[in-house]
Amino acid sequence: MASLTFLDLPGEIRNQIYRRLLIVPPLSTSGLLSNPPIYPQILSVCRKVHEEARQTLYSCNTFLAHPNLLSGLPRLRLCYDTISSPTLIPLIQRYHIRVRLDCDPNFSLAKATNAFSGVEELTIEVFQAQFGSSDYKVLRLFEGVRGVKRARVYGSVTAFPKYVAWLEAAIVTPK
Question: pTM, whole model, 2 decimals?
């Protein structure tokens, strides 16, 4: 009787294995500074496994958006290297960005719109150095983002809950 290889397993089982090896817990459970283990070595097994696993790694994880470059140079967590490959960045469908209300964000509405419109998930974590010292002006840079399946804005937003609810609803509006 011939022995089975990994590729002889049904695709559903291989996908479950890829998920266990390549998906880190959501940021809300693991934190920004934790070092969740992933095992990208599986991508080097063979070409077919590389193609299947690469899709899982980049489309199922939430990546940290760069504070100025947005979807340019994202990273899985602070402890991992940035992604700079122009062939890999388009595979990323889930972003988490931290924006500071009391600083110039160094990006425009057009850049935010282009970077995040149409992604599967966008989480905007809002913070400020001193509570109550800023308004939601920086969040207005996300008003052009559309077609996101899931949007969440949280953090230092208790002073303007109606605007946050409107922004989340606007982001998930179809393009």
Answer: 0.89
* Cα angle 126-66-153, degrees, rounded to a multiple of 5: 25
Instruction: Please report whether residue 1 resides in a domain.
Output: no
Residue 114 CA: distances (Å) to CA of 19, 33, 52, 162, 175: 29, 28, 27, 25, 12
Residues 81 and 165 in one domain: yes
How far is CA 68 from each of CA 40, 49, 101, 105, 174, rounded to the nearest angstrom? 27, 34, 14, 6, 25
pLDDT digit string (tens) for 124-175?
A: 999 887 655 678 899 999 999 999 999 999 998 988 999 999 999 999 999 8
Cα separation, 90 vs 107, whole angstroms: 19
In a domain, 12, yes or no: yes
* CB-neighbour burial class of residue 33 (10 A; exposed 0-12, middle 13-18, buried 19+): exposed
Domain with 99 in it = 64-174
